[in-house]
Write a structure and sequence with these properties.
Layout: H1 2-8, E1 13-17, H2 22-33, E2 39-42, H3 49-58, E3 67-70, E4 73-76, H4 78-82
Parallel strand pairs: 1-2
Antiparallel strand pairs: 1-3, 3-4
Length: 86
């Protein structure tokens, strides 16, 4: 869990994704189109992938990816990021 917490604070916007996940790609494109600088961690390319997935779930993600952190705090996944504010 320490690795995920450390990585989630590397930049203002951090996205944990998998290279084959279309929802992760959609979230990345959204932030890119908005001009937001982001740090993307493709956990499927990390040797500790399984541990990172478990850590993200323990932090409150309903699914391990995409997981979006802003300012080091978990915002959520695709639904939370793309839902209009009410």
């Amino acid at each position: 869990m320490d690795k995920v917490l450390r990585m989630s604070s590397e930049k203002g916007v951090v996205i944990f994704s998998k290279s084959s996940c279309c929802l992760s790609y959609a979230v990345q494109v959204l932030f890119q189109d908005l001009g937001v600088s982001q740090k993307i961690h493709e956990i499927d390319k990390d040797p500790e992938c399984r541990e990172m997935e478990k850590a993200l779930m323990r932090l409150g993600c309903s699914k391990p990816v995409p997981a979006v952190f802003i300012g080091g705090k978990l915002v959520g996944s695709t639904n939370e990021v793309m839902s209009p504010c009410t």
